[in-house]
Amino acid sequence: MTEQPEVHLYTDGGCSGNPGPGGWAYLLRHPATKKQLEGSGGEPETTNNRMELMGVIEGLTALKKPTHVELFTDSVYVGKGMSEWMPKWKANGWKRKEGKKLVPVKNEDLWRRLDGLIEVHQVRYTRVAGHSGHPENDRVDELAVAAYQQYL
Prior knowledge:
alpha/beta; 4 helices
């Protein structure tokens, strides 16, 4: 069996207002070859959490074959969602506990897309402190902001 390539995926998303115009971005880097790929996009009316998810989804979608991915994001929502919450949501039919009842998961459409991509790729989550001088995190933040500027 051949070893899957390992890549680093840096992602960000944000809005001007929440909800409001939003942007997402990713930077994929293959450490062995130093090759990089960037992508970004935006929506006229969305939320921070949707844009954070879109950065990850679009970055994973850009991969051409199953890959070991180290995901670097400043989004606790994405990180905890992937590592802690999603298994429970799936077991509960994509519902989460609110008090004593089950309610639909917010952004279920995007979580389901991400779940499908995680089944293809092996993703490991690493939290990065936002706006802390981390060069790649700063770059994807810059791209995400530029992506929503068109809607202002």
